[in-house]
Amino acid sequence: MIPEIGHFALILALAVSIVLGVVPMLGAWRAVPEWIALAVPATRAMFLFVLLAYVCLTYAFVAKDFSVAYVAQNANAELPLFYRISAVWGAHEGSILLWALILAIWSVAVSLASRTLPDVFRARVLAVMGLVSCGFLLFMLMTSNPFERLLPAPANGQDLNPLLQDPGMVIHPPMLYIGYVGMAVPFAFAVAALMGGRLDAAWTRWTRPWTTVAWVFLTAGIALGSWWAYNELGWGGWWFWDPVENASFMPWLVATALMHSLAVSEQRGAFKAWTVLLAIFGFSLSLLGTFLVRSGVLVSVHAFATDPERGIFILAFLAVVIGGALALYAWRANAISGGGSFRLMSRETLLLINNVLLVVACATVLLGTMYPLIIDALGLGKISVGPPYFDAVFAPLMLPLVFVLGIGPLTRWKGDTALRVVRRLRMAFVASLVIAIAIVLITAGSSPLLLAALTMAIWAMATTTVGFLARVRSKADFRQGLRALPRSFVGMSLAHIGVGIFIIGVAFTTSFSTDRDVRLAPGDSEVLAGYRFQFEGVSEVPGSNYLAQRAAVRVFKGDKQVAALFPEKRLYPIQSQPMTEAAIDAGFTRDLYVALGEPLADGSWTVRLYYKPLIRWIWLGPLIMAIGGLLAASDRRYRSAGKARRTVGETPADTVLSAEPSRG
Amino acid sequence: MRPRRQRMIFVAVVLIGVAVATALALTAIGENMLYFYSPSQIVAGEAPRGHDVRIGGLVVDGSVARQANGLDVVFELTDTAAAVPVTYTGILPDLFREGQGIVALGKIGNDGVFQAREVLAKHDENYMPPEVAEALKLAAEGGSMPNPHEKPAGSKP
Asked: Stretch A338-346: mean pLDDT, rounded?
């Protein structure tokens, strides 16, 4: 009964989304206030129905209703409650439902936080989001209904994929989806603005916090995914350039570019057409990501369940969304007038370089991801593009980006003199270079890339500090100056520091990690990077829904024991699937990582040992970036954006722009 | 700067950036492309020696043999028409087992033995890498995979 209610709720949600996508849009076109007013209640109704469907599916998991095919495939009577709840998004159907729910949540959030927007504009934004929801609900009902019954019902389910039975996997997909789907908000704002033919400063000010929040979740989601892969896949790696990782990384790159170009559009009125285009591309890449992950065209650790029919649906949907938005753009872009002028040496130019680098980086990732698919589709053979390609392309693009990152915030809008900027930053540059050389000498590293990466990482942090102190010192009193700083500035500074920390982590982990596969009998020990790993033997330990072989490994530095690690080899009998559960001694300066291989005839085991310096910094950096993003999104001027609208909304767009005071 | 000149510079910067990146990316992709071969193709000598390639197939039942040190493994991969011996040093993935479809990355030695550097088995018991599935299908039909090297002379692998 409950699953049928869920199914019915989905159908109702689809009906409401069609109304939401059509009626307010026509109302905005024909200026019918009643139709426009329908947008908000329809958004809420759609949200409630999708939520109801989601609750029904969760209930089916909690109640172990194995007559629902999706539950039977992804849960088991022995699966702990915690994982039964997260199993809702453990496979295709449920994750699309989660996707639809998150889209509905974003829509409701927009409807709640947009009271100050002009009614027509708000109606258009919500209608665009309604149309996107409509596409996803239709997709779910036509190709991937999570409520499909399995009759007769099996006595027990097939269990959740053991890889997904991990706390990291519980929060990673929702985080990532919130970010992915959040890109629908700037997209909807851009499309609505194109329809209205008005892209003024108010528009960018409304779009900015939404973009930033979506970016925050995307950042956190990708970092969590990387952390999960490191913990769970037992290969000790943190990024594999796997197509599905790329699928989430591409929207991130575009979202980052969009955040920066929005800054120019808001402060200076320039790059507006470009900003709109980025908003369209950001969401298109989110959809492309869904297509890549769900269509089965990719070979990937994520390709758990695949179905070509679904791929075709998403591809068609993708074509409609991108094609429609770009057609609208082509038709309307002329209405977007250029903004304030600027000189070559100005913050605008530096942000332009930032955007070009980020978009080009995104294009290279796209090329590496799609190239094998295209070659295959043309019948030219099966190829794959591995991590060396991405490594080779990425460093030359990212290091200049970080260099520009250091200069941009300290350069004035509109125009500056190179001499002034050089004078402000030369100390920071010398200091970065000296510290980086010192680190390379101390650690006996040898690659020029390591030196370049370290210099740029320290440069990012040093220049940010210079800018920060300059801002604080502009007030007479230090504490007063600190308090007077706008949150958006503090947020930006934090995020840029996070970039530096991330790069240091990557540089160290890449250059100085060591690993070894060894054969160890109980009592044997092996020395790696100055640590002695002593293998104490393996015992059998039963788990809730698995059986584990657990090894005890004691790690010594000198004579002192620094860690006791218990890596496991688990067997999940329901899926008859073995799983390596690595044991990690995490630390600020280094991780020690032990993974069990296989038992050998004489009672010894193959064991893989890793030493990973500063690997935690790889996740610490994005965490700081995300916190910075949250701070920036909560800046006071977005909260008072409503007041600004009252004065701004009625004036024609271009006069508003030239009247915009330039901000720091 | 006037809007027109500004747009010109904008376009110029974008074009230069894109041109540099395209050159970079195409060079990198050319150098780092990995071709896939089926065991039949390797036995027929279609795959280049000494270059990194990927090979996929089923692990032959009863072929997996561990050397005395416990880390060196030898096994055979087949597409049902032909089999290739593979050596690997280190720990194999969880789902590596006899009869399972796997993909290996490595070089073909002069003795015809495939020296694998990486072995991938997917995280689903019933999952078959699409390349392997296609190679098996073609072998069953007596056909063969398209050879990526049947291209105009001079193009590098």
From this structure: 75
Q: Would residue B41 count as lying in a domain? A: yes
Chain A partners within 8 Å of B100 (Cβ) = none
* Bond before A152 cis per omega within 30 degrees: yes
Inspect the interface and report whether the beta carbons of A386 and B145 lie closer than 8 Å.
Answer: no
Q: Which of A174-178, A302-306, A520-524, A603-607 has the lowest mean pLDDT?
A: A302-306
A383/B129 CB distance under 8 A: no
Q: In degrees rounded to 5, what are phi and psi of residue A521?
A: -100, 155
With CA atoms as reference, the chain B residue closest to A380 would be: B148
- Asked if A662 is an interface residue toward chain B (Cβ–Cβ < 8 A), one would say no
* The predicted structure's pLDDT at residue B125: 47
A638 is a domain residue: no
Contact: B147, A381; criterion CB under 8 Å: yes
Residue A9's domain spans which residues? 1-164
Does B29 lie at the interface with A, CB-CB under 8 angstroms?
yes
Whether residues B40 and B80 fall in one domain: yes
The predicted structure's pLDDT at residue A308: 62
B72 and B112 assigned to the same domain:
yes
Q: What is the mean pLDDT of residues A116-124?
A: 90
**For testing the chain B interface, which of A92, A365, A382 should be mutated: the one with the most B CBs within 10 Å?**
A382
Residues of B in contact with A363 (CB under 8 A): 18, 21, 25
Whether the predicted pLDDT of A663 surpasses 60: no
The answer to whether the CB atoms of A580 and B69 lie below 8 A apart is: no
Distance from B110 to chain A by nearest Cα, in Å?
23
Which domain, by its residues, includes B95? 34-141
CB atoms within 10 A of CB A378: 9
B41 contacts B144 by C-beta, under 8 angstroms: yes
Percentage of chain A exceeding pLDDT 70: 93
Q: What is the number of structural domains in chain B?
A: 2
User: What are the distances in angstroms from CA A349 to CA A354, A399, A496, A510, B110?
Assistant: 9, 17, 18, 33, 55
Distance CA A273, CA A190 (A): 10
Chain A contact set for B2 (CB, 8 A): 341
CA distance A338 to A360: 23
Q: State how many domains chain A has.
A: 4
CA distance, residue A578 to nearest chain B CA (Å) = 6
Domain boundary among A437, A461, A483: A483
Prediction ipTM score: 0.78
Residue A297: per-residue pLDDT: 56
User: Which one of A341, A388, A604 has the shortest CB-CB distance to B32?
Assistant: A388
Do A134 and A170 lie in a common domain?
no
Share of chain A above pLDDT 90, in %: 54
Which pLDDT value is given to residue B7?
A: 67
Q: How many CB atoms lie within 10 A of CB A517?
A: 15
> What is the distance in angstroms between the CA of the first residue and the CA of the last residue of chain B?
48
**B85, B67 contact by CB (below 8 A):** no
Question: What pLDDT sits at residue A214?
Answer: 96
Q: Which residue has the higher pLDDT, A250 or B10?
A: A250
pLDDT greater than 60 at residue A71: yes
B156 CB near a chain A CB, below 8 Å?
no
DSSP string, A517-586: EEEE-TT-EEEETTEEEEEEEEEEEE-SS-EEEEEEEEEEETTEEEEEE--EEEEETTTTEEEEE-EEE-
Which residues of chain B does A383 touch, with a Cβ-Cβ cutoff of 8 Å?
Answer: 33-36, 148
**Chain B nearest C-alpha distance from A601 (Å):** 9
CA B112/CA B85 separation, integer angstroms: 8
The amino acid present at A459, given as its one-letter code, is W
Of the candidates A600, A543, A548, which has an alpha carbon nearest to the alpha carbon of residue A579? A548
Q: Are residues B46 and B4 in the same domain?
A: no
Highest mean pLDDT among A287-301, A487-501, A631-645: A487-501
Residue B66 and residue B117 share a domain: yes
Would you give the DSSP letter of residue B98?
T
